[in-house]
Amino acid sequence: MNILYQRVKRGDLGVEQAKLSFYRVFALGMLLDEGLDDSLAIRAIELAHRFHLPAAYDAQYLALAEREGCDFWTADQRLRNTVQGAVGVGAVAGHISADQSEHAIMTA
Q1: Taking the model in full, what pTM does it have?
Q2: Cβ(94)–Cβ(73) below 8 Å
Q3: Among candidates 75, 26, 65, 70, which has minimal Cα distance to 44?
Q4: Using an 8 Å Cβ cutoff, are 22 and 38 in contact?
Q5: Which pairs count as long-range contacts for 71-80, CB under 8 Å and 24+ apart, including other chains?
Q6: By the 8 A CB rule, do 87 and 46 touch?
Q7: Exposed (0-12), middle (13-18) or buried (19+): which is 70, by Cβ within 10 Å?
Q8: pLDDT by residue for the chain (108 residues), tens digit each?
């Protein structure tokens, strides 16, 4: 998925073309990850493009937090500032307790 987003950033593909390419990979029956949900990956491409992220990796965590309706915790100050309040998840930097961890998506 990240390669498709990198091509969007370079201007080789539009977002819709990248999404279509991703759907074509799934249509081949190829499994990229046993737990990967195609709608989650598509949403990650949209979020990466919307926030001009350098790669789609962080957007995958963000899309997962959005889908699960939980907080998105990150120590990446720039990422936090970029997405804070812009999507339907909380974006909070800092440490997280064991009690909080079962209701949050975390990335470094």
Answers
A1: 0.59
A2: yes
A3: 65
A4: yes
A5: 71/100, 71/103, 71/104, 71/105, 72/104, 72/105, 72/106, 72/107, 73/104, 73/105, 73/106, 73/107, 74/106, 74/107, 74/108, 75/107, 75/108, 76/107, 76/108, 79/53, 79/107
A6: no
A7: middle
A8: 677 888 898 999 999 999 998 888 778 775 555 455 688 889 899 999 999 998 888 888 888 888 878 777 776 778 888 888 776 655 454 444 444 444 455 454
For the chain, which residues make up each domain, given as ranges? Answer: 2-107
In whole angstroms, what is the distance from residue 94 CA to residue 87 CA?
19
Q: Are 5 and 49 in contact (CB under 8 A)?
A: yes
Identify the three-state secondary structure at position 98. Answer: helix
Annotate 60-97 with three-state secondary structure: HHHHHHHHHCCEEEECCHHHHHHHCCCCCCCEECCCCC
